[in-house]
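Is this the right way to post structure tokens for a design question? Let me know if I should format differently. Anyway, here goes:
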């Protein structure tokens, strides 16, 4: 998967580096060095290969994982003649529940990330002149991207008890406690995460 990501970036940057459809130069309005694509064919192609396709593929994989685990859970529930508390508390059932929560968390975080990340490349790809000449639009898209990066860990913490437990363990460690005491808080203020969600 890592090699696929590097390969996509290499192909997209190689086109502009070779002078196919554009070049690297100072871009408006900030004057930063960036790829200025002049070809009406290369620009949408780069946006699709480097942005739309990977995100759509990632979302599809997460959706397939979530659907597969959900169907397996449904089939396993149908096969139980008389489900009891003992049956639902078996390790296999708990493992399926945990996998379902992780798949749901990954899919929701991917949807949120796409909502925050896609507007900038889609706008710059479909209408580069408007995007390059509108500093406020660029600032809005960059802020939206920063919000997307910042809130994905919050989604992980809200939707997965393992992440909450991991954060609690960090805070409970000696370094975490020293940092917490430095902020003027007492040890009793730290509480363990509650039940699973």
């Amino acid at each position: 998967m890592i090699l696929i990501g590097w390969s996509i970036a290499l192909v997209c940057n190689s086109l502009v580096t070779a002078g196919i459809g554009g070049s690297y130069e100072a871009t408006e309005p900030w004057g930063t060095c960036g790829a200025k694509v002049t070809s009406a064919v290369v620009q949408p192609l780069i946006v699709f290969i480097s942005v739309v396709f990977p995100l759509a593929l990632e979302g599809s994989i997460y959706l397939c994982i979530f659907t597969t685990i959900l169907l397996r859970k449904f089939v396993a529930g149908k096969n139980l003649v008389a489900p009891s508390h003992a049956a639902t508390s078996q390790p296999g059932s708990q493992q399926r529940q945990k996998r379902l929560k992780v798949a749901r968390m990954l899919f929701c975080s991917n949807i949120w990330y796409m909502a925050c990340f896609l507007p900038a490349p889609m706008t710059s790809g479909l209408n580069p002149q408007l995007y390059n000449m509108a500093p406020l639009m660029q600032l809005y898209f960059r802020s939206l991207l920063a919000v997307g990066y910042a809130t994905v860990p919050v989604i992980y913490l809200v939707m997965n008890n393992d992440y909450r437990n991991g954060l609690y363990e960090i805070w409970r460690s000696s370094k975490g406690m020293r940092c917490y005491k430095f902020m003027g808080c007492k040890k009793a203020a730290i509480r363990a995460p509650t039940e699973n969600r």
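Format looks fine. Someone answered above. Worth noting: The chain has two domains: 2-152, 160-197. The first helix runs from residue 2 to 17.
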